[in-house]
Amino acid sequence: MGRALVTLVNPNKIRPTITPYALDILTTSLEESGFDVEVVDLNFHRDEWRAALAGYFDRRRPLLVGVTVRNTDTIYPQEQKVFVGEHREIITEIRRLTSAPLVVGGVGFSSMPFALVDYFGVDYGVKGPGELIICRLADALLTGGSPRDVPGLIVNEGGGAVTRVPVSAELPTSPLAHAGHGESRAWQANRGTAYTRRSGVEHKVDNLAHYHHGGLGNILTKNGCPFTCAHCVEPDAKGNGFARRAVTAVVDEVEALTAQGVHDLHTTDSEFNLSIANSKAVLREIARRKDTDSSSPLHSLRLWIYSQPAPFDEEFADLLVAAGCRGVNVAPDHVREDLLSGWKVTAKGTRYYTFDDTVRVVELARERGMLTMVEVLLGMPGETLDTLRECIDRIMALDATVAGFTLGLRAFPYSPLGMDLARQCSGERTVRGLQSNTATEPIVLKTIDQCASVVEYERQFLFEPSGGFRPVYYFSPQLPEDEETLSRPDGRWLNTLRFMWDHIPERDYPRVMLPTAPGLSRHDNNYADNPFLTSMVQLGYRGAFWSRWRDRDSIIEEARAKGIVVPAGA
C-alpha cells in the first residue's frame, strides 16, 4: 500500500482513441513518490461514462483527483468543435461523487489555464509539465502542508479569482509573468526516469488497448521549444526551452511498448529533429540495441516522426532508417519566404529553414523508403490568391506521399499571433479576418493589460462575452471572399475552399488532404470521429493514418463489404 491514492481521469472520448500519455507520465512520478495511482479512462466508457465514474468512486476515496485536458477544441478551422463543455460536465460529475480536491493539466489546458480553472470550477491547475508539481501537491494534501507552498501551482481562489504560486521568492511583476507566459518550465519535467508504460493492467493506462483502437503509441524525447513561431502555443504551454530526457530512459520506454505489442509509435516532441544531437543519440541507441540483440522487441518498431524542414541531414535520415522509422511528417507551413519571415522563427526572430530544406527532406526520405507527409498552413497574414496558388503548386510538385493543407489559424491567448491580434483590436475594434463559426457579434479582443484579470484575457479566445463558445480563428482577408463573408464574424471562407478543390486536378485527390466544409466534399480530413479512420481501425490497419490516405476509398469499400457501418457520405 502506498501513502495515499491519487486518481487520474482521461475525459477525452474522441475516436480513434488518443493514448493519454500524460497519465503514464504522472503515474510514474507519483508512484516513485510513494503514492498509489489509479486511472479512469473514459475513452473506453464513451457512452456510459457516468456509470463508470459512479462505479469507481463508490469504491474509492482518493486524496486527489487529476484530470488531463489534451485539447480545448479540434483546432480545425472549418469544424471548430469545442471539447471543454463536455469536459466540464465530466468534472462536475466527479465533483458530485468525491470530496477530493481536483487538479487539471494537459497541453490544451495549458494554453488558457486561468480561464479553464475558473470555467471548470476546480481547485488547482498546472500549466506545463505536471509530474513534479502534482507530487508536491499530493504531499502537501497528505501531510497537512499548504498547496500555496507548491511552486507554479495555479490556485482557484473563488469568485473568478485565480492565482499562481510564484516559482521563486520574487513575486511576478506583470500579469503575463503571473500567468507564467514565456518562461522555461524545464524544472517541472521528470527527465531522468523512463516513464512506466503498461498494457492490460486494471486502473492503469492500457497502451495496447488504445493501440488496437487506433491510438498510436507515443514517445517524448524532450519537452518545450525555444522557438517563437507565430501560431504555436507549445513554447508557452510546455516551456520556452528544451527539457531533454535521458536517452536510455527514452529507449527503455520504446522497448517496453514494443514488447507489449505496441509496434507503431509517434514522437510527441516539438518537433523531433529540433535539438538534433539529442534526437540522433536516441536513434543510435535504438539501432545499437537492435544490432546487439536479435531478440529485442525493438526489431518490430515502426517509428513515425514529426519534423521541421531543418535540421535534417543524411546522417539523421540514415539513423531514422536504422531505428525503424516508417514515415516523416514535415511541417514547412508555406513556400513563400515573405510570408514565413517573422512567422516560423527562432527565439531571436530569425528563419531556420527555406523551402529547399523541405524538398531535401522529401528526397532523403524517399531515397530510403520512408513515407512523407507535408503539412501546410494557408490563410496566414498576407496570404492572397496568388500566394495560395503558388504554395499549392509547389507543394504538389513534391514527390511526397501525402500533402495536407489547412486553411485558417486558431488564435490562442499566448501565441504570438493571438497577442498580436489582441494588440490590433486593442479592445476597440475588430480585425478583418477574425472569425468564429459560432460568433454572434464582432470579435473584439483586448490586450492583457486592458483586462481586469488573466481569466478575462484568456476567456475571450474561447468564449463570447455572453458566455457561449466562440473559438477565435484568423483567415487572411486578402483571399477571394465576398465582402459579406469578410464583414461577418461567422463568415465562412468557402470561395477559397472551392478554389483549392477546383485548382487541384481530381487525379491528385488521393494524395492530398484538403480542408472541407459541409456539402463541399466527402473527403473529411478532420481526425475526430472520421469515418475513414474509424473504418481503418476496425479493419485492423495500424500506423499513421496519413500513410493509408491514398487507399481511403478502397478501405471504406472493404469496411462496407465486411458489414462495418460507414456513413453514406464517406
Descriptive report:
With 570 residues, the protein is an alpha/beta fold. Helices cover 34% and strands 14% of the residues. It has 21 helices and 19 strands. The protein has helices at residues 21-32, 49-57, 84-97, 107-110, 113-120, 131-143, 175-179, 207-212, 234-238, 247-259, 276-292, 314-323, 337-340, 355-367, 385-396, 416-425, 454-459, 483-487, 494-503, 531-538, 552-561; strands at 5-10, 36-41, 64-68, 102-105, 124-125, 154-158, 161-164, 217-219, 222-223, 243-244, 264-267, 302-307, 325-333, 371-378, 402-407, 409-410, 434-435, 473-474, 512-513. The strands form four sheets. A seven-stranded mixed β-sheet has the order 2-1-3-4-5-6-7, sandwiched between helices. A seven-stranded parallel β-sheet has the order 8-11-12-13-14-15-19. Strand 14, helix 15 and strand 15 (402-407) form a beta-alpha-beta unit. The protein is globular.
Q: What are the main properties of this structure?
A:
570 residues; alpha/beta; seven-stranded mixed sheet; seven-stranded parallel sheet; 21 helices; globular
What would a concise description of this structure say?
The protein has helices at residues 21-32, 49-57, 84-97, 107-110, 113-120, 131-143, 175-179, 207-212, 234-238, 247-259, 276-292, 314-323, 337-340, 355-367, 385-396, 416-425, 454-459, 483-487, 494-503, 531-538, 552-561, and strands at residues 5-10, 36-41, 64-68, 102-105, 124-125, 154-158, 161-164, 217-219, 222-223, 243-244, 264-267, 302-307, 325-333, 371-378, 402-407, 409-410, 434-435, 473-474, 512-513.
